Amino acid sequence: MTIPMVAGAGLSDLDFEKFREYFYKRTGIQFTAAKRYFVDRRIDACIQSSGHRNFGGWFAALRLGDRTDLLQDLINQLTVNETYFLREDYQFDSLLSEVLPRVLAGRGRPGRPAGPVKILSLPCSTGEEPYSIALRLLEEWDQIDHVDVEIHGADIDSAVLDRARLAVYGNRSLQRVPKPWLAKYFTRIDEDRYQLDGGIRDAVTLAQVNVCDTPAMRAVQDFDVIFCRNVLIYFDELSSRRAAENLYGALRAGGFLFLGHSESMSRISPIFTPVRLPEGLVYQRPTGAK
Amino acid sequence: MTMEDGTTATALVVDDAATVRLYHSSLLREAGFDVEEAANGLEAVEAALGTVFDLFVVDVNMPKMDGYACVETLRSDTVGTGAPILMVSTEDRPEDADRAYRAGANLYLVKPVSAKRLARVATMLIAKGVPE
Amino acid sequence: MGLVRRDTSPQVGKERSQAPAYDLLERHLNSPDPELRREAALELDGWDEAVPALLGRLDVESEPAVCDAILTTLVGHDIGPVAARLVGHLAGEDTGLRIAVADALAAMPESTLSLLPDLLVDPDHDVRIMTAMVLANMRHPEAESWLVAMVRGDAHPNVVTAAIDALLPSARAEHAPLLQEAMRRFPDDPFLRFVVETTVPRLAGTYR
Questions:
Q1: How many CB pairs under 8 A join A and C?
Q2: Reading across the β-sheet that carries B85-89, which strands appear in turn?
């Protein structure tokens, strides 16, 4: 028997305020009044699937912090988390127009020897993110013919890494890829499957790594840019601190870290310096000793 | 609270306590400011990177980045604001005020701050302009 | 030029087998190079025998990034002796360290809560204010009852308001008398009056 939700009218104003403040404190994500209806519906769905009778019971369990499955479900409901090519690509715009020039300008200075520009996508999931970076660099970076670039992908999940190596994608994942790029870099397998060409696949190094595992992350070194989007918000306090420290250690001095669109280091760790770019914030490992 | 160029003055209230943010924000709004809020020093720095604020009201004890470090960062090249900064704290020792001024604050007040005091001080700081 | 691949195979397993020995890490904890100290503090994760060295280093460390790394590792040891040593920093002069330690204690609920009886009666009201901050950020069912005790019993109005603020997100109608009593205890505190007058009316009808 399903316990009927009260009136389908969403949360009381007070409950919504408490929830809003909790979610903001926990993840740094804010909701405007315009999103109220959306959030109410999503929370109702979370309460239903949790088995709690009402907002009170569900919210109390959530606040305790030991039910990471409740938090995971909530974040999944409230954020867009499917992966596809060129997702949030305003950050790739920033990479090309703002970050890479700074990386190049920093080369040759003490602590940053010449050598390939190294870019990491973590988690890389089924590969859309590192391959998106590769395509944008090849097609739109005016320095690509003069500079060596290493692109790496890392994920904790070996199954998605296998799929990333195979690099076969459907229309949904490819919907934002310009048709000329599709023709140039992919081979059509059938009407809903395209495989990325071997040249690009081979150019990206994939490895299985847990970002919270300090000894494992020791192998991840000297990156100029890291994309770590939409994973830190799932971690508890302890894990997100450690992940932030490990990401710091994986960057060169002066290296850059991109988080997801609505994420912020302000909830996690003070060790990075925020930098304003035209299209948003990026975090920088301070230049200096290393 | 109108700036010289005719725009409404915008303040950033920085405190980890939601009630304190509410209190200071409502007092500043009554005094004619537009107000935004930040829950810790890091968030304040990020906000200041995106918006030009005319006044900062900054608590001392906040998680992740305390008020002194926040003020130092606001004054440093990372943000580089010259706007007046008012620090507010529960602590009442002379060395705390000294620390605030060394960090770059213009004024240091001890909590709780009365409505009249905050409004008067905020207005005065905006009107005076900021000494280098 | 262009996209290049490192020809060596993934290094992860190889690196792990070359993990620095414990003795080396402990030495690096006191290296003149702050980056070596920071890395050593993180690598000492999981080693019980490292705890005294980490606590000792925290007493003298001046680099905030190294302090953060030390605390990130210590937080994994949610035990009485660690919390007891960390709590000493809540009264310290270094504001940055004080709040970094408060953040860490909030992530160590079991051991920190066992210290609450002493913290609640600490003669320094700043320590008690920091305690309210720790409880505000702590995810544990018992945190609330300690905050209620602070609101009810603390003699300093700033401690009481810090505790009330920490309590409000989970406050219910039954807490209204507690808040009103606090306001009566400190009639001259404008902020406390503001908090109680704006929030008590909303506490009725908290959950649908």
A1: 124
A2: B34-38, B10-14, B55-59, B85-89, B107-110
Please report whether residue A225 resides in a domain: yes
Domain CATH code at residue A53: 1.10.155.10
Average pLDDT over residues A164-185: 96
Residue A1 above 50 pLDDT?
no
**Is C16 close to A271, i.e. CB distance below 8 A?**
no
Name residues 51-90 of chain A within 8 A of C (Cβ): 54-56, 60, 63-66
Residue A65 and residue A191 in one domain: no
Average pLDDT over residues B19-43: 94
- A223 within a domain of the structure (yes/no): yes
Residue A279 in domain = yes
Structure tokens at C91: 């009264």
Residue % of chain C over a pLDDT of 90: 69
Query: Which of B20, B62, B91 faces C165 most closely, judged by CB atoms?
Result: B20
Pick from A21, A270, A276: which is nearest to B64 by CB?
A270
ipTM reported for the complex, 2 dp: 0.86
pLDDT of residue C11: 46
- Judged by CB atoms closer than 8 Å, whether chains meet at A150 and C64 is answered as no
Q: What's the pTM value of the predicted model, to 2 decimals?
A: 0.86
Per the CB < 8 A criterion, the answer to whether A219 and A249 are in contact is no
HEC profile of chain A: CCCCCCCCCCCCHHHHHHHHHHHHHHHCCCCCHHHHHHHHHHHHHHHHHHCCCCHHHHHHHHHHCCCHHHHHHHHHHHCCCCCCCCCCCHHHHHHHHHHHHHHHHHCCCCCCCCCCEEEEECCCCCCHHHHHHHHHHHHHCCCCCCCEEEEEEEECCHHHHHHHHHCEECHHHHCCCCHHHHHHHEEEEECCEEEECHHHHHHEEEEECCCCCHHHHCCCCCEEEEECCCCHHHCCHHHHHHHHHHHHHHEEEEEEEECCCCCCHHHCCCCCEEEEECCEEEEECCCCCC
By CA distance, what is C199's nearest residue in B?
B19
Give the model's pLDDT for residue A236. 79
Please report the pLDDT score of residue B112 as a whole number.
86
For residue B37, the surrounding DSSP H or E stretch is strand B34-38
Give all domains of chain B, ordered by start, each with its CATH number. Answer: 10-113 (3.40.50.2300)
Domain count, chain A: 2
Same structural domain, A95 and A49? no
